[in-house]
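Before a colleague's protein record goes any further, I have to sign it off. My question to you is simply how this chain folds and whether the tokens agree. I do not need a full report, just your reasoning and any doubts. This is what I was given:
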Amino acid sequence: MKTDVCEQFAESPDAGTAPALSTIPSANQNMDRYKCRALFAVSSLGLGHATRTLAVIREYLRRGYEITVVSAGNALAFLCLELEGETAVEFSEMPDYPPLERGTGWRLYWYLLVDLLQTWRVIRAEHRAIQAIAGDYDFIFSDGKYGFYSRWTPSFILSHQIAFVPPKGLREAAWLTENINVAALKRFDFLFIPDYFGPSLNLSGNLAHTRALHRCPHRFIGILSSYLCLDVEQDIDYLFVISGYLLEHKESFVRSLLEQAGCLPGRKVFVLGDTGGDEAAYERFRTDDLEIYPVASGDLRQELFNRARVVVSRSGYTTVMDMVEHGKRALIIPTPNQTEQEYLAAYLGGQRYYVTRTQQEGLDLASALRECEQTRPFEAPWKTEESLRRISDGIAELSHKHFVSIVVPAYNEEAEIGATLKCLLAQRYPADRYEIVLVENGSTDATRDIAQRISAESGGRLHIVPINEGGVSHAKNVGLDKLAPDSEWVVFCDADTRIGRDFLQHLNTWLNRHGDDDLSVGTTSILPELGTGWYGRAWFRAYDFIHRFTRTSFSIQVARTQVARGVRFREDLNFSEDLNFIQECRRYGRFFFLSTNQVSTSTRRFDSCGYLRLSLRWTVEALMPMRLKINRKYDVIR
């Protein structure tokens, strides 16, 4: 599909004539529009997803990005509180997955089936929604949201849970859930695992260190914590952080802890992790040395955690990372039937990093807290600062902006050149990472005047090179000679070819994903101009197939600049010069075909000659011996 800018000209009743300059949006409107943007999709199944992703969000705010946060429930409310006042952040709510492993007995298995089907539906809805907006972002970062990936935007997911621990009775199906999960994770460009690689010194055990992991591009990045290190006195003896998304088990557990905490010596603080909690319900438990907060955010959240000597918490993975980051001793208590927390508690307790208890065994809080003094700290190889660097390095590998030069040869194109240049200047791409070189080949109409007026508004991105001799091959070679020294890729496109605003983003993402390949030259799929009937659209689909299969092109070619400068176009060819150019470039690397919806072209040649007749003519010309092509005249159709 063409972008709005292109549609303005394609749908105009005067599209067959030169558009008045007053109808072309000012090029200055597009100069400063580009801003680095990132989308963060955060699961609301527990606050842990939000708290650990908060560290990454803050890092990219520091780098000057505009951020969109998509989440729901307590996670969204928490992030709104933490990022309050950040003008570069916008929030959006989207339904999350149902909480798995709820209920008891046979209901557990029934709810599991129902919730898995609902989860699948939500993931599909997420993916459909992201397709419409993915082009607005430089990258997508997901924490626990499986539908937030895009074909044309680098997409990353953060997860420590590659293998799942099924409930009792389904343990034999663990291999199946693991493989399904890996298949879902492979849809992302990269999986960031917040843990350390190695069989002994790690926090997630078999959850992240699995045999199936090698099938998914991944990197162990180390722990993530959004808690800063503050120089404060540790005057809170016990900090109770009681978050967790299975609310059906929570209320009685919290009341039991409050009753026992009242008998403990020292200062105690409870953070319930519920932004909608009823503070009055726990009023009777308050004393001079026992404080209760439904939720703690911002400076209060940082202060309380730094002041704590011992933490009592659910065995959520993010909480574990927070405690490792700050060297806290802890008593961890898994949520009943939450198999991941139960596994982590058993694994970390077995390593003697933390004391673990379960709700079902009748918790003796005082006895468990005494045991905390006998645990040994986990010696982290590195902490959050280094982990954020590893994340940013991984994102940068797929977000690098190639410098792209666009060469447009033009002769008597007053009816098309205004729309073509305006589409090129409307790219959502950094203005300092692409250039447009218009080679104006001695036109006798208003082509040069239109181009010069647009160039004056382009902020230096559009360069006009006037020549008065030679054909299209000479014009393309002159364009090559005028490219910026740091040009990496060059795009040759006809003056009647429209480039959608996301084209350079699509091309850049594709090149980054195939950066290790030996690529030299390629082309793209092409749509007919708006308003073309089904017959014309069918022909264009056939052309795309033929060009992919035969490694040829029509209307647009993309080449590595270094290769194109060495090969150049044969100036004794007035037609099939692109075919010869591609053949010569293929000596130095592979041909590629970019399937995109961002390129469309005029059908004037087909309207004049007929689709079948023109196709047969092109076939004959392509198969014609080179000696018969040299200096052969080409019929120009305007």
